[in-house]
Amino acid sequence: MDFITSTAILPLLFGCLGIFGLFRLLQWMRMKAYLRNAVVVITGATSGLGKECAKVFYATGAKLVLCGRNQEALEELKQELIASQATKVQTHKPYTVTFDLTDPEAIVGAAAKILQCFGYVDILVNNAGISYRGTIMDTTVDVDKRVMETNYFGPVALTKALLPSMIKRRQGHIVAISSIQGKISIPFRSAYAASKHATQAFFDCLRAEMEQYEIEVTVISPGYIHTNLSVNAITADGSRYGVMDKTTAQGRSPVEVAQDILAAVGKKKKDVVLADLLPSLAIYLRTLAPGLFFSLMASRAKKERKAKNS
Ligand SMILES: NC(=O)c1ccc[n+]([C@@H]2O[C@H](COP(=O)([O-])OP(=O)(O)OC[C@H]3O[C@@H](n4cnc5c(N)ncnc54)[C@H](OP(=O)(O)O)[C@@H]3O)[C@@H](O)[C@H]2O)c1
């Protein structure tokens, strides 16, 4: 019996491992082929996650269009990429397009410029965004609107401006960098959480509507990442928050998150949560035990209020 078990199980085990390894290799090769020479547009490429996404997509041989508000910073990144020798694959000189996502007219003009760069777009990464800190009662509606314009209406307008050319080619991939706060809402982040919930909802609808044209939609929901997001956040009166929050400082490295995003896009994943266990569990708690989730958020609000007033 022992002899039969050992002679049957070991080859079976190695066979399974071999098949799994082969599957992973094929998946990796397919992913590389999908991204190599793909025209990839990245918004918010001047900083943090967008900058790191630019680096990883560039290194796979993608043809980049780097977008942001600061032309100097975009040009600097472009030169950095050209000078980098981190890859053996053939790379392509990136283009840059400067515009503000809160300006609807600028978005229409920018979309035309983006299309002129390589003639078409394969992948749009809607990454640019701002965060917010404040109480609902102290926050002016203008601030709510500014966050919504940057994080929601801007990406929606850019996506709509680029979709017709994708539909014509029956090829394209829209990526939305949302947040864990697109799935759960945390006190004193109302405008941000609302903008990310809207993002999740819009791009979920888009995925269903675009299936007939074979256009992919990926929504990525990261947890905290160590970038300047909290420093650049706006407060209740619209001024810059200017503080590196402890949670953000302790967040994941943007390099690692960019690599995870590259893999998720390459594998054409539909909805990806890139967060630690606790925030991931909170999503389930919100669905399965909403009462408990709401009390936890209320005590979090109480604790933060107390800390601020002490
Ligand atoms: N960091 C985190 O903990 C975290 C967690 C989950 C999700 N995210 C999401 O990740 C994305 C990238 O954020 P990040 O962490 O890399 O923050 P970041 O370092 O502050 O970068 C934000 C980027 O968005 C651009 N941007 C802001 N407002 C814009 C506007 N009106 N028009 C055009 N571009 C604008 C910024 O450009 P300028 O240089 O011109 O300001 C910058 O390039 C955001 O969507 C954010 O919500 C971040």
TrEMBL record:
Gene Ontology molecular function: oxidoreductase activity, acting on the CH-OH group of donors, NAD or NADP as acceptor
TM regions (residue ranges): 6-26
GO cellular component terms, A-Z: cytoplasm; membrane
InterPro entries (UniProt xref): NAD(P)-bd_dom_sf (IPR036291), Sc_DH/Rdtase_CS (IPR020904), SDR_fam (IPR002347)
Species in which this protein is naturally found: Carlito syrichta (Philippine tarsier)
Domain of life: Eukaryota
Alphabetized UniProt keyword annotations: Membrane, NAD, NADP, Oxidoreductase, Transmembrane, Transmembrane helix
Family affiliation: Belongs to the short-chain dehydrogenases/reductases (SDR) family.
Name of protein: Dehydrogenase/reductase SDR family member 7B
Lineage of producing organism: Eukaryota, Metazoa, Chordata, Craniata, Vertebrata
Pfam families, per database record: adh_short
CDD domains hit by this protein: 11beta-HSD1_like_SDR_c
Alphabetized SUPFAM superfamilies for the sequence: NAD(P)-binding Rossmann-fold domains (SSF51735)
Family matches, as NCBIfam families: PRK06181.1
PANTHER family membership: DEHYDROGENASE/REDUCTASE SDR FAMILY MEMBER 7B, DEHYDROGENASE_REDUCTASE SDR FAMILY MEMBER 7B
Described purpose of this protein according to its UniProt entry: Putative oxidoreductase.
Gene3D superfamilies: NAD(P)-binding Rossmann-like Domain
